[in-house]
Amino acid sequence: MGAKVRNWRVERRRRRGLAHGAVLSGVTESISAQPAAAKTRQRRTWDVVLTIVLLVAYLLVTGAVSGSGLLFAFASDSCGASSVCNTDQLAGAMLFVLGGVWVPFVLLLVLAIVLLVTRRLAFWVPVLGFVIAIAILVGGFALVTGAVRPA
């Protein structure tokens, strides 16, 4: 019976996180110290694979959003005949979408690599990139829509 009580007390102290070698009712606990390797972060294979797949998909989305910026030039087709256009704003919208998606792509790619090397979760970085790319595309659409006004 005494061994059961002692084991129960030892387990309770372990769960509370008491120090190695603490004294409990005159009995010294023998809590083994964790090895140093257990304190380092473990690499999550699923996170590495998912991050790489999402980064490739993010690259494709970034290219598609950047390419759609070229199509903003067609918004100026009605300029002069039936619409009044601000050509500087149209050019700015094109440049905003063409180049604006690549800056976050490079920054988020570096961030994902750093997180993977330090063995932290990184799958959320390309997901954030998708949101940023779509926001830049919507912002470009808003700029183009504001630049072309019916006469």
Topology record:
Layout: H1 2-16, E1 23-24, E2 27-28, H2 45-70, E3 83-85, H3 87-100, H4 102-117, H5 124-147, E4 148-150
Antiparallel strand pairs: 1-2, 3-4
Helix pairs in contact: 2-3, 2-4, 2-5, 3-5, 4-5
Account of the 3D structure:
The chain is mostly helical. It has two domains: 2-36, no CATH class; 45-150, no CATH class. It is built from five helices and four strands. The strands form two sheets. It has a two-stranded antiparallel sheet. Strands 3-4 form a two-stranded antiparallel ribbon. A hairpin with a 2-residue loop joins β1 (23-24) and β2. α2 runs parallel beside α5, α3 runs antiparallel to α5 and α4 runs antiparallel to α5. Mean pLDDT is 82; it is low at 27-34.
